[in-house]
Amino acid sequence: MTEESSTKELIREAAVDLFAAKGFKGASVRDIARRVGIKESSLYNHYKGKAAILESILEYQLEGINRAMLSREEMDAFAAGESDPVKLWLRGVAFYSSRLPRLTGKINRIIHNEMYLDEKCRRFFVDHILERQIDLTVILLGDLVDRGMIRECPLVQTAERYVFMLHGLAQISTIYEIDLKRDGDIQNRIVEHMASFIEGLT
């Protein structure tokens, strides 16, 4: 890794922290540079401005999502030997989540906060989060049907219900984490809701 690429990554990571905490408009280039420990003018050697940094964050997240996806062979190997659909589903969710970039939680908060004002964040949410999650859930539910682990169901509609439920819970989780400082409770409830959803399909 070159010194330039290292500095760019430090800038991006500082921006993720600040955009997640203060919002895109609330965090200045000066704030980001100060967090990294460089002059504001030096930051412009790496990025044209805040919009370019935000675009870099979205590119970083998309690359991470693509790397986290399991191949068909990996999915088959992961499912081998597990007969309980709820356990398999929860293990799969935890495994996929562990493969996502470590900044995913904060980046998702940025995207959710900014998507109503920023077209790039809005498009990213629809195309690379919402639609991708629905498509993946359709595949995984179909796999469970093929294995005889859950009953036949309208896959797209069922996947949409599941993903929409998760996004509602994620919004509550963010609010609890920011305002009420009790994120642990909601995380346990999210797992319980996921388990209950899959159990309802058996």
Word description of this protein:
- It contains ten helices and no strands.
- With 202 residues, the protein is mainly α.
- The chain folds into two domains: 1-47, Arc Repressor Mutant, subunit A; 65-199, Tetracycline Repressor, domain 2 (Orthogonal Bundle).
Write the layout of secondary structure elements.
Elements lengths: L2 H20 L6 H8 L3 H4 L6 H19 L3 H8 L5 H15 L4 H11 L4 H28 L8 H26 L2 H17 L3
Helix pairs in contact: 1-2, 1-4, 1-7, 4-6, 4-8, 6-10, 7-8, 8-9, 9-10
For the report, how would you describe the main beta sheet? none
The beta-strand count equals 0
Shape: elongated
> Could you state the order of secondary-structure elements as H and E?
HHHHHHHHHH
Measured by DSSP, the beta-strand proportion falls in under 5%
In brief, what are we looking at here?
The protein has 10 helices and no strands. The chain has 202 residues and is an all-alpha fold. The radius of gyration is 19 Å and the shape is elongated.
Question: What descriptive keywords fit this protein?
Answer:
2 domains, Arc Repressor Mutant, subunit A, mainly alpha, Tetracycline Repressor, domain 2, 10 helices, 77% helix, 202 residues
